[in-house]
Amino acid sequence: MNERLRVLVVDDHPLFRFGVCTLLANEPRIDVVGEAASGAHAISAAGALTPDVVVMDLHLPDISGAEATRHIVAERPEVGVLMLTMADESESVFSAMRAGARGYLLKDAEPDEIIRAVHAVARREAIFGPDIATRVLGFFNHTPPSTDTVFPELTVREREVLSLIAGGHSNTAIASALCLSPKTVRNHVSHVFSKLHVADRAEAIVRAREAGLGVREPR
């Protein structure tokens, strides 16, 4: 690619955003065309500035980086989004990839690694930091155990509910799928959380997917 890459940097921490902009601006083949501190600003800036690459934090003060990515890629599918974040849990990684991000690095990545990743996503390549790559490969190489042997403390119905939660279904969708009332589903969800000692739905999803329930290939 001979043309200079146009890059938009999105992060709500001014000092870190400044550091990334400075790093990229010193790269002769990159032009930093703008920066944003929120998801909404990122979406509008991506439309106005037409970047080739958006370097995106996952946790933003209004909407998530994944949601902002979804909007940006829907409007301009050619844009490469590189997540640069502190979040290394599985659900964050796959949420970002499902939203359309092409790369995922942690904020402690080396400067040259960030620059290489920017160029990679511009070439429409998928790129991950070493720790994230290991997690992704483990996800696809993992042979899911029989659903009858995971979480033996759950009833068959509770495992069905957990599997649907892990598949991203809402309580309303679960009620429809299992022909249950919304109240019954809420009770099952509460029992699942209690038995697995998880605090919320996100934690339950991570536990379930690590056990092979509700596994779906990122879109």
What layout of secondary structure does this protein have?
Layout: E1 5-10, H1 14-25, E2 30-36, H2 39-49, E3 53-56, H3 65-75, E4 80-85, H4 90-99, E5 103-106, H5 111-122, E6 127-128, H6 130-141, H7 156-166, H8 171-178, H9 182-196, H10 201-210
Mean pLDDT: 87
Share of helix among residues? Answer: 40-55%
Bulk shape: elongated
Oligomeric status of the shown chains?
Answer: single chain
What is the string of helix and strand elements?
Answer: EHEHEHEHEHEHHHHH
Put simply, the count of helices is 10
Any idea what the radius of gyration is? 20 Å
Question: Are there runs of 5+ residues with pLDDT below 50, and where?
Answer: none
Number-wise, the strands total: 6
At a glance:
The chain has 219 residues and is an alpha/beta fold. It has helices at 14-25, 39-49, 65-75, 90-99, 111-122, 130-141, 156-166, 171-178, 182-196, 201-210, and strands at 5-10, 30-36, 53-56, 80-85, 103-106, 127-128. It is built from ten helices and six strands; from the N terminus they run βαβαβαβαβαβααααα.
Q: Which characteristics define this entry?
A:
alpha/beta; elongated; single chain; 219 residues; 6-stranded parallel sheet
